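Example 233, ligand ribulose-5-phosphate.
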Amino acid sequence: MSDDLIEKGKENAAVKAVDENVKKGMVLGIGSGSTVVYAVKRIAELNNESNLDLKCIPTSFQAYNLIIDNGLNLVSIDRYPVIDLDIDGADEIDKNLNAIKGGGGCLVQEKIIASISKNFILIADYRKDSEFFGENWKKGIPIEIIPLARVPLMKKFEELGGKPILRMAKAKSGPLVTDNGNFIIDVDFGIVKNPSEINNKLISIPGVVDTGLFIGMASKAYFGQKDGSVTTR
Ligand code: 5RP
């Protein structure tokens, strides 16, 4: 499938989600990834055109820079511990609106921001829409871990039936280091029909900071389709 159609799908989903949900005076959570870039551009357009007085809270180093570069008002959760609306991308969204996130390595801050948002919505292209996790996203569930625990955790993830791979950095030898100074292990569990159960097992293991499983958090997902339309659920 052409990259142009995918990019157009991301943009269409992002623009529709912003147009339908962003309102004057809101405190916004700004997600991470390539789809969110289109959302931030649209948020900045609306903010400038209509003087919306929006306040933006980043979920990552990338989101921080997106807010600054697009001339938006950067604020912190210390001052705004309750967020009106969080808009974020996803790697896969299942039939119950659960999401796998963390393909871009920002899952911990993304989950904190989603958890303090009154409304959390997802934007994605058609490739992310699945009945069950693992149908379309084949890289596994991202799990942020404390580096010291790497070896025993790889073993534990195997014992739970997964195939763990330590995520490596690009353009640097060695592991990827997250915005929080941790490592990420991507664990392939195949098709996941019980994400809540797996999530509960994973987060109870010492050394696991958090998982990229966002269970029961999103209220709506926008999918940009190949034909230019946007479907929601
Ligand atoms: C980063 C994320 C991203 O939102 C997710 O990977 C989707 O990214 P993209 O919009 O580039 O497909 O969870 O941690």
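Summary: Residues 31-35, 88-91, 101-107, 110 surround ribulose-5-phosphate (CB under 6 Å).
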